[in-house]
Structures are given as C-alpha cells and as structure tokens.
Amino acid sequence: MDPRPLNTPPTGPPPLDPPPSYPRPMDLRPWESPELTSWRRLPMHAVDRRAGALSLDDDHWRFQLLPAPEVPPSEDWRHLKVPGAWTTQDTDDLPQYTNWRMPWPDFPPHSPAANPTGVHERDVDIPAEWAGRRVILQVGAATSVLIAEVNGRAVGIGKDSHLASEFDITDAVRTGEANTVRLTVVKWSDASHIEDQDHWWHGGITRPVLLYATDPLHLADVKISAPADGRLRVEVQVRHADGPLPTGWRVSGHLDGVGELAPDEEYAAWCAREDRVSDFLGEARLLATVPDVRRWSAETPELYGLDIRLHRPDGSIADTSRHRVGFRTVEIVGNDLLINGERVFIRGVNRHDFHPLTGRTITPDEMRADLETIKRFGFNAVRTSHYPNDPALLDLADELGLYLVDEADIESHDHAHEIADDPRYLGAFVDRVSRMVLRDKNHACVIVWSLGNESDYGANHDAAAGWLRRYDPTRPLQYEGAAKTDWSGAGIASDILCPMYASLDEITAHAASGEQTRPLILCEYSHAMGNSNGTLADHWAAIETTPGLQGGFIWEFWDHGILQRLATGRPAGPSASGAYAHGVAADGYRWAYGGDFGDVPNDGAFCADGLVFPDRTPKPAMYEHREIAAPVRLARSEPGRPPRVTNAQHFRDVSWLTAQWRLSVEDGGTRTAPAVLPHLPPGASAELPLPHGLLAELPAAVAAGGGEAWLTLHVTTRHDEPWAPRGTEVCAPQIQVRERPAPAPPAAVSVAVSAHSPDVDAEGLLRHPLLTCPPTLSLWRAPTDNDLLGGAADHWRTLGLDRLVREPVSVDRTDGRIRVRSAYPTGAGPVEHQQVFGLLNDDGLLIEETAVLPEGLTDVARVGTVFETVAGLNHLQWYGQGPWETYPDRRTGGPVGHHRARVDGLFTPYLRPQESGGRSGVRRFALLSDTGTGLGVRLDEPRQVSVTRYRAADLAAASHHDELAPRPRCVVHLDAAHRGLGTASCGPDTLPRYRLGPGTYRWSWVLRPL
C-alpha cells in the first residue's frame, strides 16, 4: 500500500538519464505507426512465470487521464485499480459501444485528436535478492498502445490489447530500493482499426501486471508435442542475458507418473552435423513414450504434469518451467475434423471477456464460473472471439475439458478490405497471429487457430497463415473471410469452412452438393439477441444426420450490459458488487447498452446478444441447448418393449451419470422412480427397463380420463465433476407414453341455468367477476430484437396489428349459447373473429373461437386470445412445457409436466423489454391467489400461453426495465398459434413451418372459478 498523499512527487530514485540511443517514445508517435508493433518488447514464449512473480495488482496506482498523448502529465493524481479499465472507474471517458463502425471518422492509420491517455504510476520495492538477476516487467493487456517507463527511462512499447507485453528492465531498476513504474496507455491508435470488434470500447490496463526475475541463463521457450499415441517431444530454447551461452549447459525433464525424459541424441547430432549449434540460442530436445497413455479430450481432460529444468555447467538448476500436458491429436480427414481419430460434434459458443462492473477485466475465479456454466449446459467448445484470452482461461479449458478455437486479435470490420492488403499492417497481422501461437501452443484445449474475424481477406492473412503453417503443422487453422465467397475453393488460409449465419438450407445443400472440400463448422450462428435462438433444434437435427456438417459456435455467451447507476448515468464500477441478481439490476441501477452513456455513434442493444444475462444468469435458450447436446438420449421402442437409451458421447461411458424416472400424467400427478443406467460405451444403445409398477396404473388412469402421460429421464452427475457438483442435472430426455384422449363434445346448457352464467354485454364482450379486461383477439406481440431488426415488426406496424380496433358485428343469443361476431380491420383487410360462449354442467364456461385471416395478412406474430384478470392472482400452476420459457421453434429444452411458479417469475427480463415468458404446449393452467382461490383454464389442445404483469404495449414502449411498472393484475395470452422466434437480428429468420399466414384458425378453452 502506498502511504504517500496523492499529489506529492514520487519517492523512488531520481530518473535515470536515457542513453542517447533511446528515442523518446512520444517522438515516435506509436499510436499512428502501424509498422511499429512494438519496441524493445521481448519475444512471446510459453514459459509460465506467474508462480513466484511479484504482483503489482491493486487499487493504489496513481493515475491521471490526459486528453491526448502529447499532453504532459500534471501533478493532479488520483488512485485507480489495476488491472481495470479507466472507463469503468469514474472518469469522464465513458464506455462506448459500436458493432463495426469505428468511433471516429479518420481513416487508418490515424487516430482522433481527442485521444484519452491514461498515465498509471506506482512505486515498487525490488527485492534485494534479485540483484544480478534478469528482471522482467509483464503487462497482461493494455488498450491500445502501452508505453512503459521505469525510473524515468523508457523501457518499451507494446500493441495488441489482448496479449501480454514483456520488457527487460534489468538496467533500469535498482534492487533493494523503491522504483517508479509508469505505464502510459493511449486509447485510440492505428491498432484500434484492427481491433474493431463487436463489444464495448474501453481504455486502460485490463489484465494483471507483474514483475519476475530469472537467472541470466534462462529458459526462453518450451514447445511441447503430445500426440494421442503418447510419443512426447519437448523442444527447449535457452538464452543468456549477456548474450553468449556458457559451455556445458543442459536441460532435463520429468513427466509425472512416467519418469525422466531422455535427451534426443539424434537431434543433437543432426544439429552439430548441419552446423545448427548457436553461440547465443541454445536448442535441445527431450523425448518420452507414455505407455497406455490417457488421452485428453473435452470429455476426458486427462493431464500429465511436466517439469522442464535448465542446468548450469556445474549441474545446478538455473531455471524451471512447469506445464500440464494433454495427449491428443487433431487432424482433418476428408470433410471431417477428428479428435483422437473420432469425428466430434463441435457444440460451441463464442465468448468475449466481459464483466458488468469492470468491463473486460475478469479474475480466474470468474473465468472458471464462465467455463463451468458453459460445460453445465452441454457446450464442449469455445471460440475466443475475437482475441486471445487470458492464459488463466486456457489453463481452465485444459483442466475442465473444452475445445478452443484460439483467435488472433484482428478485426478491421469498418475498413476491412483496405487493411487486408495494406503493407503497413502486414507486420501487425503476422505479429498478432504468431504471438498468440507462441504463447498458447502447449495447450491441449487449443484445437484450431483462427486468423481473426471480419477483416475481409488479403495478402496479410496469407502471410500470417504461412508463418503459422510452418511453425505449427499439428493443428488446422480457420478464417471465415478466406472462404466467404467460395465455399469449395482452395484452403490457403482456412482448413475449415466456417461461415457465419448461413441458413440451414445453405449448409445442408452444400453438404449434399458433392463439392464440399473441408469440414463445415459455423463460426457464428443462432444469434442470441433478446428472446432468440429459434430453430436451434432444427439445426442440430440436420447437423447430427448430415455428413460434412459438424457443428458451430452460437453467438454468443454474454449479454454485454454494463451496470449503470441511474443517479449519475455513469458505470456503477467495481464497488457495486451485489447490485444485481437473477439477471435483474437492483433499484437505482440498470443494464446499459449502446447510447446509454451518451456515446455517439453507437449500435444500441446489439451488444445484448448472449445466452446469459450480464450477471451470468442463464437465459431460457441455455436449457434448449443443454437438451439438444444431451449426452444421454431416450427413444421409444416398439410396443411392449422398454425405451432405448443411447450414449451420445464420443469418448466417455455413462458411469459418471445417474438417473431418475419421472412420470407426469395430465390429470394424475407425478410419480418418480430410480433408473439404473446400463454400461454404455460411447455411441452404444440399450434398452432401459422401467421399474415394476411405474406404468402399471396408467391404462386405467387414461380410461378414466387421466389424460396424456410423459416419461422423463432426469440425468445428473453421480459424483463431483471439476465443473459441477454431484447431483447437477445434465439433461432430461423425455418420451410420451400415452396420447391425450380426444376431447368429448362439451355439454353446453342454457345461460340462465347457472348462477355463474356468463355476462356478455351488448357489444359482445364477456363480463366475468375474475376478469378486468374481457377476452379479445390478439395478433401482435411486443417485438423481439429479431422482430425489430429482421423487419417483422415494421411489417406488423404497417398492417396495423399493434393497434387493432375491435368492431362488433353481431351478438346472437340462441340455443343456450351466445355467438359473438366481430371484425378487426387491418392493412390487409378485416379479420373475422367469432366467439361462442356456453356454460358447462360443471360450472365451466366454454369459449370456442374462430379467426379468419385474409389472404394479404401474412406472417403475423400470433393468433389468439388476450384477457386480464383481477389483482391478487400471484401463482401459476400448469401442465405443459416448462418450467422455463419455451416457444414453438425453441421448446426442446422444456419437458412436459406439472409446473408451478410465481407470476412475477414467469417474465424473462431481456435487456430491452420484449415478448417473453411464454410456455409452449400448455394443456391447462390455474392462476391462484395466496389462499388458493382463482381461476382455471383448460385448452382444447396444447397451446402457447403467457402470463405476465405487462401488456404487449407496455413492453414495446420501454427501452429498459427501469421504465416498466408491473400491473397488479395478470395479462394472459392464449394463442392458437404463435410465430417462431428465429434469429433474424443477425442471421436467418425462423423456418416457414413456424410462421403464421392467412387462413382459418380455431381454438377453444374452458374458464372456471377455483
């Protein structure tokens, strides 16, 4: 902790005069010099120096924000937490969100004149025992140009906002004394033009800062080859701080559980014979063969500990390096990507670094929480969109078992084709790709290298690909832009066809064309903006049955909502921990998106496009994916035989899982029984006998009107897994074991017979003691993000569906029934609507409805009934799909059964309010007060139902949830048909079978008091 007052001069040693050969960094204007990727930065390597390092991470850095890099610092300092973006720590430079537009109009490589520049400074005591050792400063990441000084001397410059820069500061420090470290970060630069990614723009130091020391004789790099056959090869590079290597150095290694590695004498002899022995770059190779090797995969992340030792000529140890080795092989054979010889489905998700309080600074514990959540919902792969992640995340992916597409920090979206062939950026492309590979090459989790994202395609990509293929031939590489216009062309810069947002028809047609030349794995698909991810199950049904299709990466994991303090309009910052829960910001706060900080230009809520809310609460679409990716599948057998269970994994049997049966009968409650999973190797199937008596009473129950029945296999973890505790549900496959009996014709009687007779007024509107708004026709929903950006919402507004006006036509009271005809004018002609009311013998009120949509009324949101209840009905019980939200094209993850929830918990708080909270396949439901009274509804067949506190117009009028005021009563929608969700905010809309067109729709329901 620094006890000095903020605005006093540093107490460290006086600044050292820079040697004449050192230019002043500011004179170089590195923020507008794309040819300059770094200055005095050390080569990237894979020797992990975090253990034993001196951390400089804390909130006692002195800081000041300058308006431009040319402006000299003043004496006006404040404190700032490092790592941490200054844009989330109460400065006047606030976050800005753009999807692809650069925040300023200047062309590359120029930066704006107003260019926030943060000066970070602190004193640090260098241990006296570091005297005579090599001292290194490592800055984990800085956006976007880093200028490092120690004791007044410039020690280096670095670019790349998502990889570490290391500088040798040995000559600039004094051991045993206080030293002043100054890190100046320029926010906008030539590099920003190739970091034009779809997330918030921030400024600052966003990953850890540390110092470490090594012996002058040190390990410069370690490169590990560990294929699935167990033949380990370790290549070691050695350097000395003074230049020449001492004669007699050597390296050794030990693999846990195996023993010492052997020197590769053949390699050493070859180097001597070919005159490849250097005086200043030492190279050695170690070998081992692991018997009965345990292979690494996402399902079986087996790791071996490896120690590499560097010995001085006298045999003493000068340096060590610890690694975790996963033995696995990645290869492409034909149109298949193989892991350890197996064609593996890539069930992936794109993931940005994000935190709602800090922007993009996240701790290892938070990274673990991300990856554990990803694993629990059935994903086996992550694309590090669109830059290399913190090394801690790769360590976790190795440990937990996730395949990574490791992506270089290159996206020049706004000026893509110009930069792709611009020789001024050639060095930056190669530098960013090569440094990523040099750092991450030893991680088993990395199965594919990516050259970046949305940067068109040019010579700079081919140059980077050429370096990569030479250095690491063991992994394929991908780049979407290289095959964007020719899916069957030569794969110079992409071994994988990785389109983004291609339609289901496009990918299946290509796979069937006979022209496919490489695996097809979508780098982005199923855009998760708002209430989305429709047709995900349709995609996977095709992927799992079509040779050549192998999966993809959903866009994306996070909703990038920064927590905003409403009173100030600023980011709440790191101190606001706990000001949110269950996806909802606390009172006085809201989730901010583009434009909420006054940022211009901006792209609005397009950053709210994740599978989890900003606090990592899973959205309903996560449960959809979990079921689609289920490791255990359940299917009906022929009549009289038990259901069949299949192990859908690639490498693991099912012994790590346990299961329980749950039988749900529509009118007969729920029964459970244990299930004993058989021994099932990967890909195997077997019958799964049911416990005696589980279905014994089912035929009689159905005969007595017990309704349909569904059998669910709830599969959970048998023991603690690294990513989930014992008992975590993994999937819940379900089969129907009894069909719903055809409904008998209702026995309608005269309205005058019952005291609860329906009151239909002269306008034909039902007046009921439990309803505050009568049931009327509804054809519109509060537009989802897909509806808005895909054009459906404009179509509905043009037709006037958002402002329907009911025009009564006739009220006919004959034969004990009341027949009401109405018309609803639209831009395509009137919709004819009929309601027939009749009392049932059990005090129920039967409402039979018909709607006729004219030919011009295409692609409507819904066809159904809307009404509002009295206040005080706070609980919903239903038989249908649930318990979470489901929609017609996103309902695989909602098993049919008996569910219950508080009404306030049915609504899904998507960042921009929109249609939400629906449940598919509802057969019946009850809305109850705290005392158990209320109303019940039974539907003629499974229908889409929603119960919330908001009218559709309430949701459509709000841009954030703090603008919503929940109503005391319930707004209920009973839909005969409901449009699918699709993904049209960025990608294909829902499939034709999930759209609603002209024609006649019929539905009926029974309302009764409870």
Show the helix and strand layout:
Blueprint: H1 25-28, E1 38-39, E2 54-55, E3 58-66, E4 78-82, E5 84-85, E6 96-98, E7 117-125, E8 134-143, E9 145-150, E10 153-159, E11 165-168, E12 178-186, E13 199-201, E14 204-214, E15 217-225, E16 231-240, E17 250-255, E18 259-260, E19 262-263, H2 265-273, E20 282-289, E21 304-311, E22 317-325, E23 330-333, E24 336-339, E25 342-343, E26 346-350, H3 364-376, E27 381-383, H4 391-400, E28 403-407, H5 416-420, H6 426-440, E29 446-450, H7 459-471, E30 477-478, H8 504-512, E31 520-525, H9 536-543, E32 549-554, E33 562-565, E34 570-571, E35 580-581, E36 584-585, E37 589-592, H10 620-628, E38 632-635, E39 644-647, E40 657-665, E41 669-675, E42 685-687, H11 698-703, E43 709-717, E44 729-731, E45 734-738, E46 748-749, E47 759-760, E48 766-767, E49 771-778, H12 785-790, H13 792-799, E50 807-814, E51 817-824, E52 831-840, E53 845-853, E54 862-869, E55 875-881, E56 896-902, E57 919-928, E58 934-948, H14 952-957, E59 971-978, E60 999-1009
Parallel strand pairs: 26-27, 26-32, 27-28, 28-29, 29-30, 31-32
Antiparallel strand pairs: 1-10, 2-14, 3-4, 3-7, 5-14, 6-13, 7-12, 8-11, 8-14, 9-10, 9-12, 15-16, 16-20, 17-18, 17-21, 19-20, 21-22, 23-24, 24-25, 33-34, 33-37, 35-36, 38-39, 39-42, 40-41, 40-43, 43-44, 43-45, 46-52, 47-48, 49-54, 50-51, 51-52, 52-53, 53-60, 54-59, 55-56, 55-57, 57-58, 58-59, ...
Helix pairs in contact: 3-4, 6-7
